[in-house]
Design brief:
six-stranded mixed β-sheet, seven-stranded mixed β-sheet, alpha/beta, 15 helices
């Protein structure tokens, strides 16, 4: 279970944590129903060298999933121990330490599920995500995959998607990133794990959407119709997975949860009043036995094949559609009578394109105004002093900022408010700026919308100033999967810290850092009735977005950042819709929204049709 470790260098890690670097390979993407196939853990000393190490293959007792990625075939795993065989030894290694992983919420979620299966919990209170750390540092990389960061830091990678080799590479990625963060006086994005628990479903049904439209509720006199949404509750005579497969093959849509769209619930013991049965009864959804189901299946009626229909989209802010070029590829151009209002349509002073500008000093209102002007110049405001910062905009009081010593040490150019204003009015370029444009992802303004390219997986990454963390601010990023009525289909379509993924795994919340959270979306996995995904944030307690300050949003695809925008007009708002991804015909679009409200997250959820407990 151990092997010789080769380390590139030693580092000085923060001494307030005991660090352990972890990587897992899995049979799929959902911790609740998939399994860990291999695991590696490397315990670090304070100088970043490895004190202990542990690695092993694991026999999951199931299909290993994407063998073409991890190369872990059933034959390779056949003689490996099961997780329960190594749980105690592994737990001892983790105990009392802060777990470091790349996309740490993923690794932690799988370990949490595995430990639950053996009757315990992960002995880890905190975790750090190196992906979130790379984002916070704003490293000059096209994406934040582990292999990309290894190349950036010139760390040799021998066997990608091998748990031990990935952990070995991650030790150096973490060490170099943590050292850089210390030099920039950026806090590390450590988050607590105590509030994160994965619900394990040993009999979770993998949904296979029906090819037929949903005809609505079951009418016993009329019978079953292909396309109906069926939910199975409780024990059944036929094994649940087999019964679900039979229904799917017959053209029905088998769901794991009851929603307003559910046609019928199958339950042999309705008197047990399971949660699914109670919800069905409350919403007038028929509940039938398995025997009734068998009888109805014999005379099931043919359904109507699905057809594409353009949805009616309800927008919170006026839509501004502009031509946009991105590193991933050009988006289709859609003309709009108000497109000229966007800075994207009338750029000035091209030398500002792609520059990262940190603002020091000034009031909150000063910062709002100057960030808006920088965006009009096609520059990108930065909330933290990172490696990507190219210029520092000095406002009143900026010289007394604690980061000023680092600005001077790095020799960063300092510009004044007059430089920005002159650039806007007459296109005057500061002397230190190169005349050629620099490549960057397009920066959107409030209301601006663009078509998403062919890629189907997107990550909406939300961040705020790293200093605004701790007990003073509790920020929650959430998502709502909305149907054509602008409501959630079921409470499972409200994605938040207690429900981090919908039942199809199409939308998932990842708490990557203490000032970074992400909503990851697989557009192909979204149910047909979902027409819009609204992504919002809420500041808990008495604090507001005016207290929190600017919020940055970046939209990442598989090849890098597709678009970004900054929202900094918050004042008394406690909740804010940040962005939305919505269907227009066959095309998915993204809009920068920035619509704030003074009510709390519960009121926002109720407005979208979520049933919120009063307590």
């Amino acid at each position: 279970m151990t092997s010789t470790f080769r380390q590139a260098a030693s580092y000085r890690l923060p001494g307030d944590h005991r660090w352990v670097v972890v990587d897992v390979e899995t049979s799929g993407l959902r911790a609740a129903s998939h399994r860990v196939l291999s695991v590696a853990a490397l315990v670090l000393r304070e100088d970043g060298t490895v004190e202990k190490q542990f690695s092993t293959l694991l026999n999951p007792g199931c299909d290993p999933g994407p063998v073409h990625i991890h190369n872990l075939t059933p034959d390779r795993l056949a003689g490996a121990p099961r997780f329960e065989d190594i749980a105690d030894e592994f737990a001892e290694l983790l105990s009392g330490r802060t777990m470091v992983a790349h996309n740490a919420s993923f690794d932690y979620g799988f370990l949490d599920a595995e430990f639950q299966r053996v009757g315990s919990g992960v002995p880890v209170d905190n975790r750090l995500c190196t992906l979130a750390l790379a984002r916070r540092l704003e490293l000059d990389v096209p994406n934040h995959r582990l292999e990309t960061l290894a190349e950036y830091w010139k760390i040799e990678q021998f066997n990608a998607h091998d748990a031990y080799d990935d952990a070995r590479v991650l030790v150096d990625v973490f060490g170099r990133s943590a050292t850089l963060a210390e030099s920039l006086q950026l806090p590390l994005p450590v988050v607590g794990c105590n509030d994160s628990r994965v619900t394990v479903y040993p009999q979770q049904i993998k949904r296979m959407p029906s090819s037929f439209t949903n005809p609505g509720r079951l009418d016993l006199a009329h019978g079953l119709v292909q396309g109906m949404k069926v939910v199975i509750s409780g024990s059944t005579r036929t094994p649940r997975i087999a019964l679900a497969a039979r229904l799917t093959e017959a053209g029905f849509d088998v769901m794991n949860g009851v929603s307003r769209q559910t046609s019928v619930v199958v339950c042999d013991h309705p008197a047990s009043q399971s949660g699914k049965v109670r919800k069905a009864c409350a919403n007038g959804i028929p509940v039938i036995s398995e025997q009734q189901l068998d009888e109805l299946l014999v005379r099931a009626l043919p359904g109507v094949l699905k057809t594409d229909r353009a949805p009616i989209v309800v927008s919170l802010v006026p839509e501004i559609v502009v031509p946009v070029e991105s590193p991933i590829g050009p988006a289709p151009v859609v003309r709009s009578p108000i497109a000229a209002a966007s800075p994207s349509s009338n750029r000035k002073a091209k030398a500002w394109n792609g520059r990262r500008v940190l603002i020091l000093g000034g009031s909150h209102l000063d910062g709002v105004i100057m960030r808006s002007r920088l965006i009009q110049l096609d520059a990108r405001p930065s909330l933290n002093l990172t490696t990507a910062v190219t210029d520092v905009l000095m406002l009143d009081g900026g010289k007394s900022d604690k980061r000023m010593a680092r600005v001077t040490a790095r020799g960063l150019p300092q510009i004044a408010e007059s430089d920005v204003n002159e650039a806007l009015v007459s296109g005057v370029v500061p002397e230190h700026m190169k005349l050629e444009s620099r490549l960057s992802a397009p920066i959107l303004i409030r209301g601006e919308a663009i078509d998403l390219p062919a890629a189907r997986s997107w990550s909406v990454n939300v961040a705020w100033r790293a200093e605004n963390v701790g007990g003073e601010f509790d920020v929650n990023v959430v998502a709502f999967l909305l149907d054509g009525t602008d409501k959630v289909d079921s409470d499972q379509d409200f994605i938040f810290y207690n429900n981090p993924a919908d039942e199809d795994g199409a939308v998932e919340l990842s708490v990557d850092g203490d000032s970074e959270q992400s909503i990851r979306t697989d557009l192909d996995a979204l149910p047909a009735e979902c027409r819009r995904v609204v992504i919002a944030a809420a500041v808990d307690g008495e604090k507001t977005f005016g207290d929190l300050g600017a919020v940055t949003v970046s939209i990442d695809g598989p090849d890098g950042t597709f678009a970004t925008f900054v929202l900094d007009l918050g004042t008394v708002e406690r909740t804010m819709v940040l962005t939305e991804i919505y269907r227009r015909g066959d095309v998915w679009r993204l809009r920068a929204v920035g619509q704030g409200y003074d009510h709390d997250l519960g009121a926002m959820a109720v407005g979208y049709g979520v049933e919120v407990d009063e307590d």
